[in-house]
Amino acid sequence: MAFPQPRPQAPQLPQHLLRTVDCQQGAVRAVRFNADGNYLLSCGSDKSLKLWSVSRGTLLKTYSGHGYEVLDADGSYDNSQLCSCSSDKTVILWDVATGQVTRKLRGHAGKVNCVQFNEEATVILSGSIDGTVRCWDTRSRRFEPIQILDEARDGISSVKVAQHELLTGSVDGRVRRYDLRMGQLHVDFISSPITCVCFSQDGQCTLSSSLDSTVRLLDKSTGEMLGEYTGHKMKGYKLDCCLSSKDTHVLSCSEDGHVYCWDLVEGSLSLKLPVGKAVVQSLSFHPTETCLLTAMEGRVQVWGAEPEETEEDTMAS
């Protein structure tokens, strides 16, 4: 006789505040998990990039070398390198362990909004207010980019890479997907300036947020709109959106001090997370677990599905 299957658990959401990190680097412009989710990177308006332990909230290293505020950062798959970009028009490749600048990449004509490694960390992709995406070889000693993508008619706000595909969002209201293997470009017109783009974990969809206070889920191959998520406020700031680690929920920052979390399929609001009274500047979802980072003013918040056991709880049990 077959036993009935256990009911599938409703996916948990990161609704418990586990800790707040006072970054002491001016306003935190972006917060990012590293590749395995054990560390976080905070980008400061005081020109510094900082590396923290997520579980302890302790500062591990400070990276100084930018001439103006740091706007985005990414960690390599093996945690040996970081890349960051800044309003100073440069991209920096860092050695994690020593904190030294490995290379400073110049060429953008304006502030650099977004930066990402490819999966092997052999290439850094950077997107700038100058309307270009530049591809830099991390192993070469040459100072020129290996490729410049200049199709956008306005600034690039967001860049993501997955395998052989590159996704960009621009203030010109277009989401562009470059198939680097086939040499093809696919364009989806959203009509409102794009603030953030990302791929779904299964690689079938793209998510984009724009200044009409709407997050949209598109089918990657057909461009068909699969979902529209609204209720949050995004009118004047470049704020992040993302998908949960299992593609069950869509999340977005908001100018009203909350993170909005919608059910991907239903489109209904599952959670409105009260972060604080200011703009939620940035967010990052853990690569595998139900854990979320948010940034507001000078602080980073770590959120989890369960409240963390304190030492007293452990003693009691």
UniProtKB/TrEMBL annotation:
Single Gene Ontology BP term? mRNA splicing, via spliceosome
Q: Which domain of life is it from?
A: Eukaryota
SMART domains the UniProt entry points to: WD40
Which protein is depicted?
WD repeat domain-containing protein 83
Write down a Pfam family by its short name.
WD40
Which ranges does the UniProt record give for the WD repeats? 21-62, 63-104, 105-140
Q: Which residues form a coiled coil?
A: none
Cell location: Cytoplasm
Entry annotated with the keyword Transferase? yes
Q: Does the keyword Lipid metabolism apply?
A: no
Which GO CC terms are listed, alphabetically?
catalytic step 2 spliceosome; cytoplasm
Please name the GO terms that the record assigns under molecular function: kinase activity
Q: Which organism is it from?
A: Larimichthys crocea (Large yellow croaker)
For this chain, the family text in UniProt reads: Belongs to the WD repeat MORG1 family.
Q: Keywords in alphabetical order, please.
A: Cytoplasm, Kinase, Repeat, Transferase, WD repeat
